[in-house]
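Friendly challenge for the regulars: who can give me the structure tokens for this chain first? No prize, just bragging rights.
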Amino acid sequence: MSRYNLIDEPWIPVRDLNGRLADMGIKDVLLRSRQLASIEDPSPLVVAALHRFLLAALYRALKGPTDIEHAKRLFRDGFPADEIVDYLEHWRGRFFLFDEKYPFGQVPSVPANEKEPWTKLTAEYNSSSNKVIFDHTDSNSPGAIPLDATTRWLLATLNFSVSGGRGYRPSPSANAVICLPQGRCLQDTLLFALVPQNRAILDQDLPLWEREPRGLEYFKKGPMRAPCGYADLYTWQARAVLLHPTGDGHAVSHIAFIAGEGHEKALREPMAPFKVHKELGLLPLRLPDRGLWRNFDSLLPDAEGLAPQILDHAVRLSREDRNRFPRAVMVLGQKNDPPKATVEFWRMERFALPEALAANGQVREEIRQLLESAETAGDAIDSACFSYCRHILIRVEGDGGLGKQQKASIREMAGGLGISTRYWSVLERSFHQTLQDYASETQPDEIRAQWLHHVRTALVDAWNAHRTSVTSGDAWAIRALVKAEGQISRQITELDKNIRALEAVA
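First reply, four minutes later:
Bragging rights claimed.
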């Protein structure tokens, strides 16, 4: 018996323009997207997966956009309601979460003995292969979750499964930084992300629900293929799953779960920034251990085409209506260390998007220079900390004779001082304010001068906190401090010189 149709059932969490939260089905979300502000969920992976799912549905319902002119018409006129309703009604039978032949996003032939707890669908909860320090869910007896949450986690699994043993391959963009320009309403956010594809690709670009379910033998072969287009990419069957409901049918207690499709020659991820690797070529940027804001320039449109395609598309669309320029960019994703299956962390951050991008192609370079100046000061702190700790641990003059183990011990002690952490933490707040300055009439030289003031303040604040803790110590610690802080003084002198030069011009 077919049950729980995602077109009508309320399972997508949204916030409207008045700030109210609600759950809606696919049809209501798409048809009322102008009255909605955003999709919201505690999990960054679920938020990203829901956007990708809706985009896959839109590519098929709208049969496009096929080019920038088609995209501009959609941006001007909004989503055509009739086309969306017709598409959803045509494929209504494929959107039942429970169905004997076409259970949404699942593989009916997965053996029931491949039993796993529902937590296997998540990164945030303990499962048989992913242990989370601060989660106390018993993976042997995790209880059950309602159907709306189950559906959201199912989509997150398809988009963000990581590699593991026994043929478990990662989703195409499992470790990529995912960027989503935020519009004034959800419809604008989705339109920004609808990067055009040519008609030949669109005709072959089938999402998961339009494909016939694969049999068990197909998955046993460890299949590999290339994505056909964005709808295919956004609904990639990285895992073959079959949900098992509780007796009352209102929740899911466990699942059947095996390896799904592997990907080869993956289509370029339109939501990710890229970098050039000397040996491997073009690679998507991954979430760094440090704050992503220190790589913020990599998110902005550039001449080399390394920025996220959807951000470039958003800027192009909004040039004709500056009032609809994206207010911010949301950055989401996770990090794991392949081939391990354990997720190290997941993250969601929001950054103000400089409106000057619409008219000034130099903004990326200007921001890159700001970040470089911060890194230079950060290097001075790291060097000073290393010098201080070297003189504490190894009470000899000169750097000669330090072995790898000694250097590692010194770096570990230097990191434990917390000076660098304090510096970057203080400066991060200033960076978000600096992005806001680009939306004003402030001149670039003024912005840069003010930024260097922020860098200087963060540098002095971090080092002075360390100095205060040392001056009450022993004579050798004070001597080590004096030797180390010469590097800080030189950096402050350089910052002062650059600030005076910029203020003279401004």
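The two ends are 72 Å apart (CA to CA). Residues 132-136 have pLDDT under 50 and may be disordered. Your move, everyone else.
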